[in-house]
Design goal:
3 domains, about 75% helix, mainly alpha, homodimer
Amino acid sequence: MIKKILVVLTGIVIWFVPPVWDISTQAWHLFAVFFSTILAVLINAFPILLASLFALASVVLTGTLDVKLAFSGFSESFMLLILSAFLVAKAVIKSGLGRRVAMLLIRRFGKNTLRLAYCIAVTDTLIAPAIPSNTARSGILFPIVNALALDTGSHPTPDSRKTTGSYLMMCGITSLTISSALWMTAMAGNLITVEIAQQFGVHMTFGGWFLAASLPCIIGLIILPYALYIYFPPGLKETPEAMQAADSTLQQMGPMNKKEWITLLVFLGMVTMWGLAGIVNINTAIVGILGLAMLIATGVYRLEYLRAEGGDALETYIWFSILYMLSSQLNDLGFMHTIGVQISGLLQDLHWISAYLLLTILYVAIHYLFVSQTAQLLALFAVFLEVAILAGVPAALMAFMLAFATNYFSVITPQASTGNVIFIGSGYLLPGEVYRAGGMVTVINLIIFLLATPWILWVAS
Amino acid sequence: MIKKILVVLTGIVIWFVPPVWDISTQAWHLFAVFFSTILAVLINAFPILLASLFALASVVLTGTLDVKLAFSGFSESFMLLILSAFLVAKAVIKSGLGRRVAMLLIRRFGKNTLRLAYCIAVTDTLIAPAIPSNTARSGILFPIVNALALDTGSHPTPDSRKTTGSYLMMCGITSLTISSALWMTAMAGNLITVEIAQQFGVHMTFGGWFLAASLPCIIGLIILPYALYIYFPPGLKETPEAMQAADSTLQQMGPMNKKEWITLLVFLGMVTMWGLAGIVNINTAIVGILGLAMLIATGVYRLEYLRAEGGDALETYIWFSILYMLSSQLNDLGFMHTIGVQISGLLQDLHWISAYLLLTILYVAIHYLFVSQTAQLLALFAVFLEVAILAGVPAALMAFMLAFATNYFSVITPQASTGNVIFIGSGYLLPGEVYRAGGMVTVINLIIFLLATPWILWVAS
């Protein structure tokens, strides 16, 4: 109760404080709602769905936002990508294919939970250059991680989720921070980064990006699953009998049945189209929707299943649409840009190394306010890069650091990336846990990348 | 399989036929997709969700519609009203309040299923003038009808849904055709009608509308539940022991508990705000969302319930958003207007009585193509009224007939009104059944209103 009052009071106080700088009253009011919503989730005053519903009602009833804008998040293309990928993942599990892949992985790497985590991260990293959307990639990874959790006996219930599921899911979204940073073509925003950097005279190539990212990413890939293993440990660590059990399960399952084949074909078709989406103009959400339709049409995923188990997909879709809308409206109203300019303006007189460090840290920390990696990229990348150059930071170094940060800050909050959303919707991870474990992952990534500064400077120049 | 091929072939044939009149190729292609989608549902080739998903993928992949437009239905205000009303209805059931109201009704009127149907229709008609949105009103009626079905032993399963549920649900949406036509303030579109009619010199008042509508509406109210009782009969007709059982159940339930009181208060608050929405500028969807948030915040409706039973709400939300978008895009591209002008142009030389009859019938029949009552109103009301006046039909007569038709054609297809959607999403009604029973209701309503022509002519002049 105290927490709830605190959240409401915080919102009211910010609301009535006069806006600073040249922020409009509308943007300031929106910030009051958004900030208290994020706070509510952070301190666990309200569940994320409820906080979002109240936020939506508040911005409309106070006249802060027009209804049309307030509902705009629900028709965002990637919201429908998340929704369809979420449902396709359920079909992959239902068909039995998820189970088979999980069993194959467990038979090979299942001696302990840590190995499985590395296995997820390596798979993600290897397929990443071909899948230019981290949301789509999370749609590929999630059913595998979900099947791994289920088949090591972890279900999304309060008493069972922590045995292996929570840990593996957290490793899944952590893995996306690295795989997206490593390859220029692993996240849609990276291509925008390249274009903006170009305007500042920094020419990024596929090979140059990979080379600069390789050292910190490989270190991250080695350290992070282990760091989570210590800090956010699975309840079940050693599974010596799992490999044996998986082997006999696979023998019981026999060869792949018709449903599994169909699912495999549809899934490979989706992966191919998602891969092509960078080259040809295919909307990634439509790929997801078509894949889902194919799985329903072939009877792999029956409508009864959707009715019985679509509730969590709906929940995720609602809260994320609302939070995304709040953040992007805040951005559109110039709030984010003003904050960026003000903060970076304070750093102009520092030595370039101090400016470089502070700008990087601030760029990462400010992502607490964003519900989309690309939105922050568009709002702040150029501002931060410009200030850094004025302060004497080598342009290529700063451009690469901000580019990498745009990827690895994706677990700083549950809503920090569209790639997280399906994993959190699974019921294995609580928002509060993501704030804590994701915060730690972000700090580790930040340190690794900052320590790699000489390498990046050397490679990029 | 033959049905599926037929649907796809129909779509392809229309697609490649050159468009008639001045319809653009884009509008024609959209019509090809829309028509085959409606056909697929009508002949039961695909379930409505699957047909909609394929339609969505088709219009985007063929480049007929831009992605942004194709997804626009998902953020329509009333889509979120339907979604929230659907979830609030589940909360009303879950709280036990739905059960209590149902038991009170059964104890009083439960001797047979027909009486319960009349009871639903009368309740709806009495509250209608105060609820200026038939979608919102369906959100009020639905939990009561749902509880009545459940408490007479009918569940949304293939073997149990037809005992009472299907019939009562069908009576629920049929009742909305009458209650909306009777009162000027019972449907949002009616107020638009009044404005358009004004431009043609027809002054409609609350009292005048009520008087003109009263005779045909009262006849409809008497005939329709009985007609459905014959044509779309409940499996369970006589329930002589139900009143006794309800009485003892009520005694067992004891006085209202805390959850029921909270639900009642929230629900009354929502009804009040929905009622005020006509006077003050309150968005009806936000009322639904706030109500849902209150029920979640007070623990009446727990998030676990949403996760476990939100799947059918999601299903309904998806297909209706897509069909609505297709229909409204078809409208925006001028397709509907062209059809209206062409059809009505053919009637210009007829005697006014023939023109009047044909225009009314066509106006109703053309609603097969619309997924919103208001959209058809905006597209065709003025065109049809103008043609009628040119052909010598008394302006007030035609204006009232079209105004009433805009309400009573709402059950001609499952997607013909936002008011139907929750009822169909319940699982008690199959789309094919609504096409058949709803078609019959529409024909009966059409006949009743046409027979009432002298009355309307007398009252309106």
